[in-house]
């Protein structure tokens, strides 16, 4: 079975603006809405020490016959939650779907963001209280509950300078290897990762990615479009392997276990063009940050699809329009989680046939994404 991993590369790499359990937790909606960046976005939610929205967890207590619906839309909804009662499909619908649990596809590894230097530097420009609100927004039970994190090995294109963990030329034994740069007060990258692990109530799979070897290992003496010196298996290649091993061991000693690793960032032509649209924006004054639409879009998936969730077949029986997307998963807890994305400028109505052949109707507002959750009893597998 193939696995699915989604990382929002800049979900934790913020852009600094040059302008000034089953227990239900307290939830607040966005009470500080701003039309800032209105030229490009439908506004942002402003978070301060006094006010910052959170996400409801009441879907965990859904009863048989109930459906939980989370909606974000161009009209202004941001992970707005409501419970609807399953009823029979109406006479007039635009689309009909069927839940086909007999056909399974990928298994989810996780959703998350990258712990770049930019992420740490800009987070630590906020007040301590706001720093924790950022971490809560991504990793807590009332946040997006990110389940993975990507850690650059030394510098990346989201660093203030180019550096490595061992700049000493031809130190093949890595005698001078050190991750102290990640601990430095002008970085705080390691501290941010450790705080994220403490904030989350669930395990976070951390994986590392290398942008480039130390410059002295490269033919070009550069980290740009570079190649390792010598033939594979030679002294520089062995030194690079040891360099990676030292990194994993050093982070483990700091309480950060590396689950996986990629030896190169963007090694080939990507299937999906990378995006550098960040989910949070901050001000250099450090008194507030802004949640952009991307933040909520990521949350529609990351919060409700824990590791081990499996995508299954969700075919159309009738489709009046072609610009309504959908997908379906079943979680390890046997909840059915559906996603609808209406790209139209008008509302639509859809019916969904459950495994027990009963159907229900859902409304799909214009320009909206919805996460629809059915309790374990609906899957017939509970």
Write the layout of secondary structure elements.
Blueprint: E1 3-8, E2 15-17, E3 33-34, E4 44-47, E5 66-73, E6 80-85, E7 95-98, E8 100-114, H1 117-123, H2 128-139, E9 148-153, H3 180-183, H4 189-199, E10 205-210, H5 235-253, E11 258-262, E12 280-283, E13 289-291, H6 293-302, E14 310-313, E15 316-319, E16 324-330, E17 336-342, E18 348-353, E19 359-364, E20 368-374
Helix pairs in contact: 1-4, 2-4
Q: Main sheet, how many strands, which sense, barrel?
A: 11 strands, mixed
Unreliably modeled segments:
1-24
Q: How would you sum up the global shape? A: globular
- How many DSSP-defined strands? 20
Distance between the termini: 22 Å
Mean pLDDT score: 87
In CATH, the topology of the domain at 110-300 is named TIM Barrel
Q: Number of helical runs? A: 6
Question: Which CATH top level class of the domain at 110-300 fits?
Answer: Alpha Beta
Write out the CATH superfamily name of the domain at 110-300: Glycosidases
Helix content: 10-25%
Gyration radius from CA atoms, angstroms = 23 Å
How much β-strand is present in the residues?
25-35%
What is the CATH architecture descriptor of the domain at 110-300?
Answer: Alpha-Beta Barrel
Q: What's the order of the H and E elements? A: EEEEEEEEHHEHHEHEEEHEEEEEEE
The helix-and-strand class reads alpha/beta
What does this 3D model show about the protein?
The structure is a single chain. The chain has 382 residues and is α/β, with parallel strands linked by helices. The chain is built from six helices and 20 strands. Strands 1, 5, 6, 8, 9, 10, 11, 14, 16, 17 and 20 form an eleven-stranded mixed β-sheet that branches. Strands 2-12-13-4-3 form a five-stranded mixed β-sheet. Helix 1 crosses helix 4 and helix 2 crosses helix 4 (189-199).
